[in-house]
Design brief:
Blueprint (H helix, E strand, L loop, with lengths): L1 H9 L5 E3 L11 H12 L3 E3 L11 E14 L2 E15 L2 H17 L4 E13 L4 E13 L7 E11 L10 E14 L1 H15 L12 E11 L2 E15 L2
Parallel strand pairs: 1-7, 2-3
Antiparallel strand pairs: 3-4, 4-6, 5-6, 7-8, 8-10, 9-10
Helix pairs in contact: 2-3
Amino acid sequence: MIDSIIQALAGVGIAAQASSQADIGAVDMVPLVRSLGDQVTAGHTYPLRLPPDLEVDQHGVYQLASRRNIEADGWTIARTDTWLVSLRAASFDALRPMADGFVDAVAVHAGPVGAEITDAATDYEFDQRQFRAHFELQTTAMATDAAPTAAFVHVLGATAQDNALASMAVRQTVIKQLAVVLAGNALQLEDMSAAARGVLLGLESDDAVSPLEYAGGAQIGVFGHQILWREAYQYQQVIRST
């Protein structure tokens, strides 16, 4: 049934995969962090420290502060990285438009990796005579190549009815629940959920003796502009003793 669901979702433009196949380790968020800094430093944003021969007054550095995997029912399907980004300038008047530009760049960013500023501060570094603006930046990405929406499918659980035979043989009806985890922003999720129900309700599969039914939904969490929403579907199977 999982393969049938993935194919049905693909038919309405939803990139879906089995949660067991999700690989968050392949996601690289460094290019986004650097590009956001480069927009306000004219390309002078560097990891961890500045080059020793740098001669420009306006620049920035970034470093990874923490990393957290996001799970749905035990499956890792997304990751949030927290970064420290510091912008530097020789005067406060020069620093202000850099800081404002960075905030604006994060606010308008759209793509497969979401970004959100979660904290900010300014200070002055006396040794180097620099004004600095510090930002805590969180980036969130789904374990998929699709952008900026995705879906992940896995088994939630199963319940079995009593044996229908009076002899030593066994024939039971098993009600199996599947999760379809949708990822996107608020507007995208509304359309995705409607499209998914449109193709999944009544879906049939060779391993089922009943069509797919809707069993409810719940929010997993909000991560910046990204929302993870889990919808449950169920169908019946019959198992027999040999």
